[in-house]
Amino acid sequence: MPDVKHFDPDAALESVLRLFWEKGVATTGIQEVVAATGLNRSSLYATFGGKQELYLAALQRYLENRSQPMFRRLAEDERGLPAVEEFFAGLIKARCSGEYARWGCMVSNAHAGAENRDEDVARVLDRHHSGLRDALREALVTAQSRGQLADCADPAAAADVLALVAYGVNLRSRAGASARSLQDSVSSALQSIGAPAAA
Q1: pLDDT tens digits, one per residue of 14-73
Q2: How distant is the alpha carbon of residue 167 from its chain centre?
Q3: 98: domain CATH number?
Q4: Measured between alpha carbons, how far is 122 from 128 in angstroms, rounded to an integer?
Q5: Model-level pTM?
Q6: Strand locations in the chain (E)
Q7: Is residue 26 part of a domain?
Q8: Given a cut of 50, is residue 4 above it in pLDDT?
């Protein structure tokens, strides 16, 4: 007779995601995972594998449920530069206020931690980076078509720079940077590629 799970794996994984996101995988012990999910170790291991497999599943869930929907909205937005501005404003707001304030981004946190040495984790990080950069490039191509970029601005190169700015927002917010200072940095980056205002 097959073993029947008496818990919701999806809900358990979401609890683990929040734990790893807030605290980081390196400083989170398996007993904390057990406490957060209310499951025993054998149930966790039987469903997800060890701590590393559990972390990888949580990281992939973060990418699919949180990052990729944001990237799609940005890429499909037809407003151009205002869409990029709104993306960063939303990012700063999420990082500096609300339920997940000062947690940073789970993916950016992984970029900065030793977990990025794992090949499977590195692949998730690469997928995230490609998605972020591509979405920014799409929005900037639209901005260029609307005459919103400086003549010398290259959407692909600018997208690479803005992706790094996004990582900076994520990491600096986790370290306590103010929303104002982060917005000032973003504004400077966007002004450097924007078309000059008409006289």
Answers
A1: 999 999 999 999 999 989 999 988 888 888 888 888 889 999 999 999 999 999 999 999
A2: 8
A3: 1.10.357.10
A4: 10
A5: 0.91
A6: none
A7: yes
A8: no
Task: From 45, 104, 166, select the one nearest 12 (Cα to Cα).
Answer: 45
Is residue 196 a part of any domain in this protein? no
47 within 8 A of 12, measured Cβ to Cβ: yes
Rounded CA gap, 44 and 7, in Å? 10
3's CB contacts (< 8 A; 6+ apart) are 46
Could you tell me the residue range of the domain that residue 84 belongs to? 9-191
Closest-CA residue to 14 (of 59, 69, 46): 59
User: What is the domain count for the chain?
Assistant: 1
Q: Which two tokens stand for residue 127?
A: 């997928």
8 Å CB contact between 64 and 72: no
For residue 1, tell me if it sits in a domain. Answer: no
Do the domain assignments include residue 197?
no
Place of tokens 């609307």: 146
Helix (H) or strand (E) run with residue 48 in it: helix 41-48
pLDDT at 197: 57
Measured CA to CA, the distance from residue 197 to residue 181 in angstroms comes to 24
